[in-house]
Amino acid sequence: MSNTSPAALFERHQELLNRAVEAIHTREYWSPYSENLKKYNEEAVKSAPADFKALCDSHFAIEGVTGVKKITGERSPYGFDLGISYDQPDMNALVDEMHAALPQWRDVGAKGRVGVCMEILHRLNELSPLMAYTVMHTSGQGFMMAFQAGAPHAQDRALEAVAYGWDAMKGIPETARWNKPQGKMDPLVMDKQFHIVPRGVALVVGCSTFPTWNTYPGLFASLVTGNPVIVKPHPTAILPAALTVKVAREVLKEVGLNPTLVSLVPDTVAEPVTKALALNPKVKVIDFTGSSAFGNWLEDNARHARVFTEKAGVNSIIVDSVSDLKAVTRNLAFTLSLYSGQMCTTTQAIYVPKDGINTPEGKVSFDEFAQALATATSKFLSDNDRACMVLGAIQSDATFQRIDECRKLGALVLDSETRQHPEFPEARICTPLILKVDGKDKAVYSEERFGPISFVIATESTEDSMRLAREVINEEGAITLGVYSTSDAVLQQAEELAMDVKVALSCNLDGGVFVNQSAAFSDFHATGGNPAANASLTDTAFLVNRFVVVQSRRHV
Amino acid sequence: MSNTSPAALFERHQELLNRAVEAIHTREYWSPYSENLKKYNEEAVKSAPADFKALCDSHFAIEGVTGVKKITGERSPYGFDLGISYDQPDMNALVDEMHAALPQWRDVGAKGRVGVCMEILHRLNELSPLMAYTVMHTSGQGFMMAFQAGAPHAQDRALEAVAYGWDAMKGIPETARWNKPQGKMDPLVMDKQFHIVPRGVALVVGCSTFPTWNTYPGLFASLVTGNPVIVKPHPTAILPAALTVKVAREVLKEVGLNPTLVSLVPDTVAEPVTKALALNPKVKVIDFTGSSAFGNWLEDNARHARVFTEKAGVNSIIVDSVSDLKAVTRNLAFTLSLYSGQMCTTTQAIYVPKDGINTPEGKVSFDEFAQALATATSKFLSDNDRACMVLGAIQSDATFQRIDECRKLGALVLDSETRQHPEFPEARICTPLILKVDGKDKAVYSEERFGPISFVIATESTEDSMRLAREVINEEGAITLGVYSTSDAVLQQAEELAMDVKVALSCNLDGGVFVNQSAAFSDFHATGGNPAANASLTDTAFLVNRFVVVQSRRHV
């Protein structure tokens, strides 16, 4: 028996929904879920570490799920095994069951689905303090980032998807009376119905570095438009997804719906299941965040599905001239340090003319600029406790090894060093590696080097910087582009460049906003127009490709 | 020098635009362009036949276009060569030129582009009487259909695309101020710009049977969202497209824009150019109407582009029971006869239980139903002049030959006969071929047999009819599905079936509305959810995939 209904949930959350729809159209600052930990339930905040520990070293049971296999293997980048086991269900049977449950969810209608999605988000928000620990100890993010990016910011992005979904669906009437005049004869009159019909079972493939932030948009976009959703988390970051799925199923059950509509399929690095799931013909929508190789494989092979991918890219900054060198290098030092460059928005390529750049204090040479960046970074990370908080831990062995492998790719501007975390001595913590290379060494800097690795690139001129950035972004993609210039003409050229290669541009960031930060309801994350991503989080296109409209008509 | 501006055109047409945006959201009856020939300028109507003749047997020059090749070869299905030659430009040079002109069109902005598109439509509407003759003598449609479907209805669909484009683009603000509170510190304040950026050069590949109706949605959808458009008409139906392109270029020139933004690339059946155009990496959007083989080729090979296809399908009708057999068979007779079944919406498969159907007069056997349909069709076509008007002419040799080839596929219900057109003795005119087959002969009726060919299929029961229709539509696609039943339960089952296979449903059509008719601003043409089409004409998804949003931000 259910004690509430999807329709009641819609009414409960309607005010927030209306505000969210307003926000997606004004794109001014708005955030429904507080990023201030103090605004959360004090008890929940206090008990979160213990709640997290209680999840460790035990089986994560999800009601109604029986596994054909036990999945384990998560290890915190802070140096300990989580020791959690999960059930992997029989996948074909699961897809069939979800496909069979689809009409129920479809027939709940747009309003009801919005209500259910918003209730799930409400509960996830209450769970934020615990979610922070699960994200921290899977992704390696520092605690405060794991809290903000992993909980409220991820929830913001999810609500953004729900708002775009509602905005698109409410634009299609449920019914219409069609009354066509026929001159002196009686008019032709028909009643028409318009059904929002989801494409099919949806699959969301999570990544290890942002297990909620990059999973929620696809999850909620598919769900709100009527598609049952399988969450297939990265094998090293299952817990945040499992917790999310559990909450979703609780809400579904409470309103009398089939909890299988949101299901978890965990797997291991040794025995991955994503390809098998993606090739199931009943899977019609796929969201993926991860490597270009796998994203391209999905696009090329899951042709029966709509595939939304966020892949690798080479985020770039063009330095032409600055009005405050210290402020600029401080800003960049933070960008390069935050979560050890393990963000899909972190800068990798910094283009600087070899003849140097203009500053109010006169010309600063290429080497002086590189040195200033190194100094700013070292200084920013001089306090070890703060450094560890900002850097977080390195998520994967591959990223850790990559730092070493990349050392030989250029001349050292700043070497990467390991750090000791005050609380977790086994944590894998590394400061940024900054190299300098020549613009001609394109092969070196035009390949994504995921992690705390960046290149200061000596170019012939700002024009040459623009040319190189254009080539690299056209070929490899990018989610962010920054420009520093005191010249309006150069800023205008950068704006043209950004439009041509379809990348978001940040101009002269030298304060408390960073090129790698993207705010829900205001910043579009990726454009979907270059190789880094084939979709944007979140815009109308991200939603409307997930359903079709089926009409029926009959004479009155 | 231009004597008006895109902005002025926006204002001129704004009232109509607002009405169109209202219409796409209510989907009640609305048609901006009259389908009554009498509402058009009397002189234009009177001079249209002569204007058409003046175009024949001469070179169709488009200002600013020089050809590297002369293209000829159109022949009216009414039995005479048009004798018109066109310039085929150097295609690679053209794409480069259009790509270079893109920023100009992009920077006109959404309002200006809407204004220009609506002015083009206004001029096309004035040209409707002439357009009717060009459509008639390329597609073979009867004159009245060529006028209505080829001019006002095609213009309606074009305006529908413009309205969806405007609706989507105006939902994205041009600028925003982002003001994020920072507790006791000064807020973070940024100014943001959001640019609508088109994907690239667009290609619209026309078909021979609806050279305007199926070309305009893609043309105007791409154009209004900022993409320069190449129109590549079917080699046997160039003239309506050429006329359209000419009008568009005149408007572009008048407002001081580069006319190359809308360009024609004609080709011949012997030397087709579509593949070469589609594979040009600067071509980023492709619209196609035609065979499944070629549509699938485009989807599989033009992976650098967004591809919108309308392909083959098997439109179906399920007959369970009727309240007025005569009215039903009369309605179906019209559907099968109109333009000799050369519509992508014409019924091919009519499922009828072998035990017959219930009527108020008692059970009507399968054979009696088939006979009633044959009688209704013969009767409807008994007046030769009227028959010729409704049937139009057979567009292609292949369709003409197919009628003969299909005769052997089942037992004759009604044989196809050729007719003599009162005005054009050489016209290729054929009445419908109706065959009866068993439900088990799926291979016969589940392949699209384009043209005046349909099958009455004997099934075990209405349930069996539903099962077969489900299989065939899932596998082969369909744009239309009809159902006849006096049972609410059966109608509900049909509604479920329609949602499952994602096809538009028409229930109990027995009056002046026909399953193959689709009204702009009310009926969605195709859903994009089954093999017959990967997009709908026209919904939001048809528009928003043609552009991305590129933002820039800077501190205030």
Automatic annotation (TrEMBL), chains A, B:
GO biological process: L-proline catabolic process to L-glutamate
Domain of life the protein comes from: Bacteria
UniProt GO molecular function: L-glutamate gamma-semialdehyde dehydrogenase activity
InterPro entries associated with the record: Ald_DH/histidinol_DH, Ald_DH_C, Ald_DH_N, Aldehyde_DH_dom, PaaN_2, Proline_metab_enzyme
CC annotations in GO: cytoplasmic side of plasma membrane
Keywords assigned by UniProt, alphabetized: NAD, Oxidoreductase
UniProt-listed Pfam families: Aldedh
Ranges for domain Aldehyde dehydrogenase: 87-470
PANTHER family: DELTA-1-PYRROLINE-5-CARBOXYLATE DEHYDROGENASE 1, ISOFORM A-RELATED, DELTA-1-PYRROLINE-5-CARBOXYLATE DEHYDROGENASE 2, ISOFORM A-RELATED
Name this polypeptide is given: Phenylacetic acid degradation protein paaN
Organism: Marinospirillum alkaliphilum DSM 21637
